Amino acid sequence: MNYKVESVDQYLRKHRIIELFEDLCTKASFNQPENLEEFLVEDLKIKQQQGFLTPIFTKQEVSNIFDLFDLKRAGFITKENCKRALLTMAASQHQQQIIELTDQIDDRVDVNRFIRLAEQFLGV
Are 27 and 92 in contact, with CB atoms under 8 Å apart? Predict the structure, then answer.
C-alpha cells in the first residue's frame, strides 16, 4: 500500500468516518424521513452532544427481538442466538466485530441481560 493510501486509511479509522456513514445510512434507511438533509443534520447534532452511539431501537423493540429468538418461550436464549440477535441490530461493521469477538455473553441470556448487552454493544 502506498503512503498516501495508508495515510487516508489511518485517518478514516482514527475518526471512525466509515462507521459514522454506515450508522447514518442505517438510520436513514430505517426511518425513511421525508426531509433527509434535516434528518441527517439533526442526527449529527445529537451525536455531537451525546457521543457516537445514538440508539436506533427502543428497549421494547430490543425485547421484541429477544422474543423472536426465544422460539421455545423458555425465557432465555443461547449464547449463539444472543450473538445472532445482536448482530441483526448492529448498525456498522465495527459493532458487528465487537459482538463477534466478545466473550462477555453467558451460555444462557434472559431478556434483561439481553437488553443490557444491546445497550453495551449498540448504544440502545
Answer: no
What's the CA gap between 6 and 53, in Å, rounded? Answer: 27
Give the chain's largest Cα–Cα span.
55
Number of helices and strands (H, E) in the chain?
7, 2
Other residues' Cβ atoms within 10 Å of the Cβ of residue 60:
9
Q: What is the pTM of this model?
A: 0.62
b/e sequence 61-95, b meaning 16+ C-beta within 10 Å: ebeebbeebbeeeeebbbeebbbebbeebbbbebb
pLDDT at 99 over 80: yes
